[in-house]
Each structure stands twice: as structure tokens, then as C-alpha cells.
Design goal:
Elements: H1 2-10, H2 13-27, H3 29-39, H4 54-82, H5 90-118, H6 121-148, H7 154-181, H8 187-197, E1 203-214, E2 217-226, H9 232-249, E3 253-260, E4 269-270, E5 284-287, E6 292-300, E7 303-310, E8 318-325, E9 328-336, E10 343-346, E11 356-363, E12 368-375
Parallel strand pairs: 2-3
Antiparallel strand pairs: 1-2, 1-4, 5-6, 6-7, 7-10, 8-9, 8-11, 9-10, 11-12
Helix pairs in contact: 1-2, 1-5, 2-4, 2-5, 2-6, 2-7, 3-4, 4-6, 4-7, 5-6, 6-7, 8-9
Length: 383
């Protein structure tokens, strides 16, 4: 509302584009609110899985709202380039841009934090949308500075740049929401399910793993193999233990359907549950503004490698693991895997032992973050 007042007083098209976008951003809270209300309803004979999918529909509505705001902002900016108009009250325009940045960043922090707590792709996407909105508000300040320095076209040019940024948000948000709608899951989800199985004594094989999101709750279907001579009670106890491990590893898990299979089929993975631990250190959960995912030591056809599996795209990301050894620092750059899919791997194996203090260095060219972590070998692991 404050920005609208300044738009009327100044005639700034860059601020108008930012205001339109902010109105659209505020409007996206409405379909999310409706979706969360419906998702709390109990399943019915018609909707046996409940109404979690409504959240994905809300995500599509959000994407369409963002797209509409981009089209309107682009139209206004192009019109101002063709028909220039003087801009007044540059000080107020600058102040309005700063207000837009502060308001958007506050909303972004809240939405991203709550979205991660409840594993809502729509809410997280909306939070990152608000964060980029804050940067576009700062772009308004740059446009005002350009006009003040004697370049009046800086204002509509900044408006066009804001439009391009909005279209980028449309693409990123649509990709995340459509992935959920098509039952897609992040690369680390299936790996975490298989890892949980390695903590369950008596669980011999994982035959098949499927998972999908219903709103912000995860549902999994797993086919496991146990000793053929195990009694029904023993097999049931193993399945129950596996479900408990899944719940402890994956707080967003709403339901896990575990069934038994006999024999070995294609895709079967043998499970080593010696001492109830994985043969490698537990993975490090990466969570920061640059990346979300798991960092772990994995076995590959070429040998052990350090792998970073991202749960969301990170264009232009550079990652390095710096391991602190008594003889000095061991540097392991992580490069995108051949088929990528959000996976980064080291070219060589980390040196033994696999118990060390280290940090993960991440940069996208403009920001740099260093995340310290520690890896500890489980009991009973020998080289």
C-alpha cells in the first residue's frame, strides 16, 4: 500500500512493476491458506488419501499469479520505454524500494522456515519467490539512482530486468510444483529409505522402493526380503522396526507400506545391517541458502566417492569438501555427475580413515557459505 502511494506520486514504472509483483506475492497466500484448510480434512470414501493434492493445485495457482504479474510488469515497462515520462520524488521512490525489500525478506524468512518444517514445496517456492522479490525491490533503488544521475531510461530498463527476474521465478516454481504433481521426489528421498533399511537387523534385501508426496506429507511403498525360514511374527517385527527407522530418518513420512517378497528380482539391493549400522558414516544434512540435500560417502563402480545429492536445483553451484587431516587439509572438489540430476561427486575417494572434521564450501559466484561437519565411522567398521 505504501508503494502504491509512491507510484501515484512519482510515476516510476520500475516501482510500479515491483508493486504489481508484491501484490501478486501477497495474493499467493490465499490459495495456500485454502489448501492447508482442506488438507486438514479427513479422508472420505471418494478421496481415500485425503486432500493433500489440493496443495499442489494451490502451487499451480501461485505460478499462474506470478506469471500474470510478470506479463503486466513487462507491458508497463515496455510502454514506458516507448512513451517516456518524467519521474518525480526520487527520494520517496528509493524509500519505497527499501520498504519493499525489508517486507519481502521478512516474509521470505518466515515462509521458507515453516515450509521446511512441514516439507511444503508450494510454501518453500513461495518463500524463495518473496526473497527474489526483495532483490527486485532493491533494483528499484538502482533505477532511481540512474534517473538521479541523468539517465531517465534507467527506470523502465530496471522494470524490464525485474520482469525477467519474475519469469525466472515462474520457471523455478513451476518445475518444483509440477515435479510434486507428477509424483516426483528429491534424489535423496529413496537413498534415505535404503539407508534406513541398513539399520534393521534381519532385513536382507530391498526389492523395490517407491515414494511420492501428497501435499507436504511423504508416502512410501517398500518391498523387502527377510530370511525365508523366519516366522510370521519375526517378519512382522522386522517390518515394524523398519517403519520406526523410516519415521526417525524422515519426519515428513506420513505412511509407509511395507510388503514382503521372496526370491531375488531385478533391482534388488542386499542390505548389510551388521550391528544395525551402515558401513559408511551417517550422511551430513546440508541446509542453507545455496543448497539443500545430503553429503555422504558412497560406493560407486569406480570406488568410494564423496557425493552431494541436492533436493532442489542449484545452477552454477561450486562445491568443495575440505577435510582436516594431521598432515594438512585434504581438498575434494565435487563436480556434477555425468547424468547430473542434482548429484555432485568427487573424482577420487576420501582418504582413510573416514572419521574426520571437515567443512563443505559452497558458492554460486556471488555468495559463499562454509558448513562445518563431522563424520564418524560406526562401531564394527574395519578397513
Amino acid at each position: 500500500m505504501l508503494q502504491m502511494v509512491v507510484v501515484a506520486a512519482s510515476g516510476s514504472v520500475a516501482l510500479l512493476a515491483d508493486t504489481i509483483h508484491n501484490v501478486g506475492d501477497a495474493t499467493t497466500a490465499i490459495p495456500l491458506w485454502i489448501a492447508f484448510l482442506l488438507a486438514r480434512r479427513k479422508p472420505t470414501p471418494t478421496f481415500t488419501y485425503g486432500y493433500g493434492r489440493v496443495e499442489d493445485l494451490a502451487g499451480i495457482v501461485i505460478v499462474l499469479i506470478i506469471l500474470f504479474s510478470a506479463i503486466v510488469a513487462g507491458y508497463e515497462s515496455i510502454d514506458r520505454l516507448i512513451h517516456p515520462k518524467p519521474i518525480a520524488n526520487l527520494g520517496w521512490v528509493t524509500l519505497a524500494g527499501i520498504i519493499g525489500f525489508i517486507g519481502n525478506e521478512a516474509v521470505a524468512v518466515l515462509r521458507i522456515r515453516v515450509g521446511r518444517e512441514m516439507n511444503s514445496a508450494a510454501l518453500i517456492a513461495d518463500g524463495y519467490h518473496a526473497r527474489v522479490d526483495g532483490l527486485t525491490s532493491l533494483a528499484v533503488v538502482l533505477g532511481a539512482a540512474g534517473v538521479w544521475l541523468g539517465f531517465p531510461l534507467a527506470d523502465p530498463i530496471v522494470g524490464l530486468l525485474i520482469t525477467v527476474a519474475i519469469f525466472g521465478i515462474v520457471w523455478q516454481s513451476a518445475r518444483a510444483v509440477l515435479t510434486r504433481m507428477l509424483d516426483g521426489v528429491e534424489p535423496g528421498v529413496l537413498a534415505e529409505i535404503r539407508h534406513a533399511a541398513e539399520h534393521v537387523p534381519g532385513l536382507k534385501q530391498i526389492h523395490d522402493v517407491k515414494a511420492r508426496w501428497l501435499g507436504h506429507r511423504l508416502h512410501a511403498d517398500v518391498t523387502i526380503g527377510v530370511d525365508p525360514i523366519a516366522s510370521l511374527g519375526e517378519a512382522t517385527a522386522i517390518a515394524d522396526a523398519f517403519k520406526r527407522e523410516l519415521s526417525s530418518h524422515m519426519p515428513a513420512l506420513a505412511a509407509a507400506n511395507v510388503v514382503f517378497a521372496t526370491g531375488t528380482t531385478a533391482g534388488t539391493q542386499n542390505v548389510d545391517a551388521t550391528h544395525g549400522h551402515h558401513h559408511a558414516p551417517d550422511p551430513f544434512k546440508v541446509s542453507c541458502g545455496l543448497a539443500e540435500g545430503l553429503l555422504e560417502i558412497v560406493d560407486t563402480p569406480a570406488g568410494e566417492r564423496m557425493r552431494l545429492t541436492l533436493s532442489r536445483p542449484a545452477p552454477g553451484l561450486l562445491a568443495t569438501v575440505n577435510i582436516k587431516r594431521s598432515a594438512g587439509t585434504e581438498y575434494l572438489p565435487l563436480a556434477p555427475a555425468a547424468d547430473y540430476d542434482g548429484i555432485y561427486e568427487s573424482a577420487v575417494a576420501p582418504a582413510e580413515p573416514h572419521e574426520f572434521e571437515a567443512d563443505l564450501s559452497l558458492t554460486d559466484g556471488t555468495r559463499r557459505m562454509v558448513l562445518p561437519f563431522r563424520m564418524v565411522e560406526p562401531p564394527g567398521h574395519h578397513h
